[in-house]
Amino acid sequence: MSFLSLLVDVGTTIEEATGFLQYLLVFVFAAIPVIEILVVIPIAIGLGLDPVLTGVVAFAGNVLSVYALVVFYRRVANWLRRRRGETSEQSDRYARARRLWDRYGLPGLAVGGPVLAGVHVAALVALLAGSRSRIVAVWMTAGILVWTVVLVAASAYGVSVLGIA
């Protein structure tokens, strides 16, 4: 499945739902690492959903999934280590997030991570680098909040300029 077909599927799924279910889908899609807020907010606002409510719901879905990762990362990391053995192959997303961490630390990773590697990968890199869980949660929340506001504003402005919804 290509990324473009994933975008179409997300849009179609939200569009075919009605009312509360649309916002529930925004919440769920925002929590999924590949989709996240960068995809779901512009699609939902482009489909005519309320920008502020979309932003709040997407923010909540994304943040809560990151909090779950922060809470359970030790268990997951130990499980993966046992499953794979001690060697693990690094993905391109992980490598980008690690370079961001090496250059800018946790604040840079929290702000740049959602765009460059995905917020879940960014949080995982910060945790694996030894940052305390609470600090990672605070910085990732701040980064997600910044990107949510930017995406909602840009999407609402784009929709109004283009006259889409």
Automatic annotation (TrEMBL):
Membrane-spanning ranges: 20-45, 51-73, 106-130, 136-164
Entry keywords, A to Z: Membrane, Transmembrane, Transmembrane helix
InterPro entries in the cross-refs: Sm_multidrug_ex (IPR009577)
One Pfam family per UniProt: Sm_multidrug_ex
Keyword Oxidoreductase: no
Source organism, top-level taxon: Archaea
Name under which the protein is recorded: Membrane-associated protein
UniProt source species: Natronobacterium gregoryi (strain ATCC 43098 / DSM 3393 / CCM 3738 / CIP 104747 / IAM 13177 / JCM 8860 / NBRC 102187 / NCIMB 2189 / SP2)
